[in-house]
Structures are given as C-alpha cells and as structure tokens.
C-alpha cells in the first residue's frame, strides 16, 4: 500500500441506474431458467433506452421463459411505475432477440471445461467487517439507503436512478476519515427552489442528514465535503436520460477499483461461465485467507482457457503482509479448494436462482442468503494448515 497520506475513491449506482436495470433483467432471466432447468446455459444481454428494452444473447434450455413479463416485472420492482420517472413498466416495449448457445462452445463445456478464456480476480482485506475495501462498501450502502427511503415513502420525492461516490483518506494504508461524499439522486419537481434550476437548501440538508450521516458515522467530520446533485437538479433520469447495457458497471460490481479486474462482466451468465463463477471463487478463497489471519489483505488471480477444467494460472498477492509466503498460500489453495468449473459450482452451490439480487449493490461483501462465496467456513482449516496461532 502507498506510504503517507493519500485518498482513494469508489462509486456505486442504484438499482434504477440504466446499466443496473439491464443487469437485473439479464439475471432475472437467468434465474427463471435455473429455477426450471439447473443445467440450462445462459449468456443474456440487455439494452435499454427511453421506452424500449432489448434482450439478446444465447440461451439453451428445456424451460420456457416469458422474457417480456420477466423484464417488465424487474422494471416494476425497481420503481419505474409512472411516466414522471421517464419509464413505465406497463407501457415500455420489450424486444426478444435470444438464440441458442453455439455447439462449438457447448462441446467444451459439457465435458466440464471452462466456458471461456480469461482471467478473474478476487480480493479481501480486514478494512471492514465484511472484509471489503471501505470506499466501495460505503458507496453501496449510500445508494441502498436512498432506495430504502424512497420505497419506504420516507423521501417521497426521490426517483429510482441514483449514484454515490466516496473518497476516503488513508495514512500508511489505514483509514483515517472521509474526505468527500457525492450523492446524486433523481427527484421530482417538488424540491426545486423558486428558480426551478436547483433543489432547495432544505432538501440538500435533508439528503445529507437522512442518507449520508447514518451510513458514514464518525468517519465523517466537520471537514468532510458533500456534493449533492451538483448540477443543481436531477429531474430526468433512468433510461430517459441515458441508455443502459448489461455489464457496464464491472468495477461497481466488484471492489471499487481497489484491485485489478479481468474485464468480464457477471450478470446474465450461468456459472459455467468462469467470468462469473471463478470470480466468485477467487473472492471465497481470498476472504477465507484473510479470515484465517494468514494475511491482512489478499488478491487472487485465476486464469482459464475454454474447454479445459484446471486453471492455467493461480497467483496470490498479499502485499508483503502475509504471515507465510505467497508461494505457500498457493499450495494451501491447491490443497483445499477445487478450482475447476464443476468444483466451483458444487462448492458454492451455484445452480440455483440466486442471481437477480446480486445485480445491484455489489456482488461481494453481502453476507445474505445465497451469497455462498461470502462464507468463511474454511478459515479455521486454513489457519491450522498454515500453522497460524
């Protein structure tokens, strides 16, 4: 980690952001397939613009998926239920452009090989109770709180589309305070001032008090800077203001830029696609290593080639803070974790319809039902094997 004082920033976006809407539609379709056909193959992409959703990709399954109604229900659940938000689940058009998986890919996957080539990263650190970097965890919690207050009718003027950004001050790798916070949320006209160009100061303070302060706690001080709807207003949001696509928020989905990313998106992909399943496994491995006390932080890289089961590469990086060498940690991983696609699917129980809820507010750091890669069940075993007291 850098020495001295430095600042690190991560962002998040809400479930109503156009890209996240697409991620949720793609994963809702995946869940629909897996609930009927656990062996179904899905690589589903979604595009959204004003009044239009297009679903495409490759699906091979014995089940039937009502793509149009699945998509509309996602839009409804998010909160796009009125034209004032620029999107209405009842009137938006949905186009289905799905076809079956290529047999050239299937012949390698059917034998237990990886569904694609590429590299995947996992990470954990002892910075938060979730063993995640603090900036991304705070950013997720801020947009989740916006959604909760909106859906709970506490802040009725909020719309579904919102973003957050948190800049944390560190000293020699240790969190010191929060330097700045960005809150951007779609809203109705009722909180505009007399000019009609800015939200009122009262509303700005209310957003800080009801959204930011309960999340930030004592890490925010009198020097923390707040940027709330910085252009003045955010009336037009969601698909009305911007197009959305599946897989465009891969840094939001993972570690907020703290570590490298292999480039592969998660949503809409069944677990034979190592872009998703191996990234989950890498997080599982890294989290158990940190939970075991073997290292204060740990990054894992896995690499695969299509059709081959065993990874081509396994890299461990503990940034000089491991209690045993990185080489020895690699040996522990190979001994105690099955890194083949089938092994990963079995270990993490990934053939269940658990994916829609992963598609907003991050895939990691959430110890909820279905997030099996967040378990710390191998920490004691690894601690004993590493001879850590």
Can you describe this structure in just a few lines?
This protein is α+β, with helices and mostly antiparallel strands. Helix content is about 30%, strand content about 25%.
Description of the structure:
The radius of gyration is 22 Å and the shape is flat. Strands 1-8-9-10 form a four-stranded mixed beta sheet, with helices on one face. A four-stranded mixed beta sheet has the order 6-3-2-11, with helices on one face. Strands 7-12-13 form a three-stranded antiparallel beta sheet. The protein has helices at residues 18-36, 67-78, 103-109, 134-151, 201-216, 250-253, 274-291, 326-336, 341-348, 379-385; strands spanning 5-13, 41-49, 52-60, 81-82, 87-88, 93-99, 118-125, 158-171, 174-187, 225-228, 244-245, 297-304, 313-317. The two termini are 25 Å apart. It has three domains: 5-13 and 135-238, 2-Layer Sandwich (GMP Synthetase, Chain A, domain 3), CATH 3.30.300; 18-109, GMP Synthetase, Chain A, domain 3 (2-Layer Sandwich), CATH 3.30.300.10; 118-125 and 247-258 and 273-385, 2-Layer Sandwich (GMP Synthetase, Chain A, domain 3), CATH 3.30.300.10. With 389 residues, the protein is α+β, with helices and mostly antiparallel strands. The longest helix has 19 residues, at 18-36.
Number of domains: 3
Percentage of residues assigned to helices: 25-40%
Low-confidence stretches: none
Query: Could you say what the CATH topology of the largest domain is called?
Result: GMP Synthetase, Chain A, domain 3
* Rough outline: flat
| Number of alpha- plus pi-helical segments | 10
- Report the order of strands and helices: EHEEHEEEHEHEEHEEHHEEHHH
Q: How many runs of DSSP E, i.e. beta strands?
A: 13
Average pLDDT, rounded to a whole number, is 94
Radius of gyration: 22 Å
Question: What profile does the largest beta sheet have?
Answer: 4 strands, mixed
Structural class of the secondary elements? alpha+beta
Which oligomeric form is depicted?
single chain
CATH architecture grouping of the largest domain: 2-Layer Sandwich
CATH class of the largest domain: Alpha Beta
Biggest sheet, spatial arrangement of strands: 1-8-9-10
């Amino acid at each position: 980690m850098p020495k001295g004082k430095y600042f690190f920033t991560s962002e998040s976006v809400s479930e109503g952001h156009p890209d996240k809407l697409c991620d949720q539609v793609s994963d809702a379709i995946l869940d629909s397939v897996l609930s009927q056909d656990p062996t179904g193959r899905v690589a589903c992409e979604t595009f959204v613009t004003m009044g239009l959703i297009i679903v495409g990709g490759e699906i091979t399954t014995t089940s039937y998926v009502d793509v149009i109604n699945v998509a509309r229900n996602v839009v409804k659940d998010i909160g796009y239920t009125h034209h004032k938000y620029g999107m209405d689940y009842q009137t938006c058009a949905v186009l289905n452009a799905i076809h079956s998986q290529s047999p050239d890919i299937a012949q390698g996957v059917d034998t237990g090989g990886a569904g694609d080539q590429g590299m995947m990263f996992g990470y954990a650190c002892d910075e938060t109770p979730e063993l995640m970097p603090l900036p991304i965890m705070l950013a997720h919690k801020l947009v989740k709180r916006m959604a909760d207050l909106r859906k709970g009718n506490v802040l009725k003027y909020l719309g579904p589309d919102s973003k957050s950004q948190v800049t944390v001050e560190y000293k020699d790798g240790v969190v010191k305070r929060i330097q700045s916070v960005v809150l951007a949320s779609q809203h109705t006209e009722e909180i505009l001032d007399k000019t009609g160009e800015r939200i009122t100061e009262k509303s700005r303070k209310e957003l800080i008090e009801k959204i930011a302060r309960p999340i930030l706690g004592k890490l925010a001080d009198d020097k923390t800077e707040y940027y709330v709807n910085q252009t003045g207003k955010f009336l037009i949001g969601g698909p009305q203001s911007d197009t959305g696509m599946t897989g465009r928020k891969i840094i939001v989905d993972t570690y907020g830029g703290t570590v490298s990313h292999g480039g592969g998106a998660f949503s809409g992909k069944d677990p034979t696609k190592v872009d998703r399943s191996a990234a989950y496994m890498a997080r599982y491995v890294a989290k158990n290593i940190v939970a075991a006390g073997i290292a204060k932080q740990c990054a894992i890289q896995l690499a695969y080639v299509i059709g081959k089961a065993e990874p081509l590469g396994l890299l461990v990086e503990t940034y000089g803070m491991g209690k045993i060498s990185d080489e020895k940690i690699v040996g522990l991983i190979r001994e105690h974790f099955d890194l083949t696609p089938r092994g990963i699917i079995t270990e993490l129980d990934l053939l269940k319809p658990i994916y829609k809820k992963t598609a907003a507010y991050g895939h990691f750091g959430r110890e909820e039902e279905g997030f099996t890669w967040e378990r710390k069940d191998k920490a004691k075993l690894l601690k004993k094997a590493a001879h850590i007291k």
